[in-house]
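Predict both folds.
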Amino acid sequence: MFFGEEELIKIAEITRTHGVEGDVLLSLNPDFDKNIITEDLPAFLIIDGMPVPFFIEKIKKLGNKIIAGFRHIETMEIAEKYVGLDIMTLKSLFEDFDEQEYSEELIGYSVFDEKSGFIGKVSLFNDIPGNPVIETEFQAKTIIIPYSEDIILKIDDKKKEIQISAPQGLIDLYLEP
């Protein structure tokens, strides 16, 4: 079956080779937890604009780094040809993703807006169908922020921080007297 790029989502990029056996170091897309990359994950590399399936044979997680080995990439010379390429997987794998499961982990994360700075810590994830939101408590007021890829810029699990770009006026709406 052929998949177009519109059916795929970027999960990582190959940043460099690792060792002499064809392993590569991956830079993970910040929207995903490093545990997303497993040996059974359908992986595609975009080569000359076309998604080409590759099979992940081994994964090693070292801190926030991921070292991967792919089938048929067995030497450093071969691996070097793939440095800089994006690793994609099927978007459909995430359509049934239980946001509530991940949302529980977000409670207590500090939220920073690119204009307003610190706007509180996540106190609640409200999984409203079609429009999930996170709530923060700041200056004794509740701020409700849509949980969408247009607003959430980055989730840093290590620092327990969420970077957002709130629409103009949204934060002020909640903080005005």
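Second protein follows, with its predicted structure tokens after the sequence.
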Amino acid sequence: MQAGTLVRRYKRFLTDITDINGKQLTIHCPNTGAMTGCAEPGSKIYYSRSDNQKRKYPHTLEFVETEHGLVSVNTGRANNLVKDALLNGRISEVGSLTIDQVKPEAAIPGGAGRFDFQLAQGGRTTFLEVKSVTLHLEDGLGAFPDAVSTRALKHVKELQTQVQKGARGILLFCVQHMGVHRVCPAYDIDPDYAKALKLAAQQGMEILAYGCQTDLQTMTLSYRLDFMFDG
């Protein structure tokens, strides 16, 4: 992991930075969200390098230092973090699972698209969808989403449908902002999502939030956070 300074983030997938020697680089930004509060010019950042010679941009933005804490902006990490936690028993509401019990990218029964995971345990199917939280509002309160997300709304409704059919449905917020200690829906950003989330919860969909620990080299999903509708 190498350190640098953020110059600007643009075209969703590109970020200009300067390295520790002052050289400007254009690197890949693995985050499709608005990155509100995580893309301020002048912020200290950390980036990785890929050995894949076919990549146009070999470097990837990984972490941004904000005034509220370190943020892992690589949202592609979230599913791997959750899978590792599932296999090692760090999500107490699910328990420890074997690799055969965890099916990534599971097709939605009777619908279009996929859930992040299908879990097999106790004779009942569990569908688990993961959402990455990087938005900090105030006083340790994080929120999702950081921009209007029709895709996230669709996943909530699909989970709600599966719960109504008898499956267990879990929406897990993977909090990749080290300064966030509790999570709520982003009412002001996407009120339709917040409304759908509350309705789904009332009808039996489970909502979990878990935080991460990192030393920049390794990262683990390791502790439960509070989720609340009233912030």
